[in-house]
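Worked example

This section walks through a single chain of length 211. The input is the sequence exactly as stored; nothing has been trimmed or padded.
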Amino acid sequence: IVPVIGLIGSLLVPKSKERVIFSVALTSILFELIVFLFLSYLWLGQGASPISTSGVSLYTSDHYAFSIRFYFDTLSAVFFGMATMMTTLVFIFSRYYLHREPGFKRFYYTVLLFFIGLSLIILAGNFEVLLVGWEFIGISSVLLIAFYRDRFLPARNALKVFSAYRIADAFLLAAIWYAHHIFERSVDFSELAEVVAQHENDLTIVGILLL
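Given that input, the structure is written out below as tokens.
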């Protein structure tokens, strides 16, 4: 929620107000980092057992349920902490590197969008949330690579990356479909340790598709 608020705030600030844009973006990511460190400290003190949310159902049918689930464990903690610290450093460096660039505001809200997508992937509790985060990363990556729109090479490279992401989308959707075909329901990532033993060969195919 914190980076989403930062994204909205950076969109509302006029693009001529570089200092305000930087302050809004940096404050949101620093607050995210502080909250993460504080909650991680409490979590480690309680034994660092994995945390899985119950999820909010957005769509339900006889054969399928789309729900927002999050899963947090030691691997998630490492990646999320690293992502937050790296984004903080990028924001601080870019303030001077992109000073007086026409796309200063665009860069900051695009990186925030990228961070939101990365957070969703790291904290995803099921394949649906993973897919949403992946799409956010794909969109923001293309926009960041094509940051200098008036230059030929950035635009061409962004088109290449866009094509690569679409190919990856196809395999990711195939992996999700096959996982639903195996389990006949939406799989919570907290259950993976249990289902691997039951469907080892099938999950190998899912893993290859994801890779």
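What to look for: The first strand starts at residue 51 and ends at 52.
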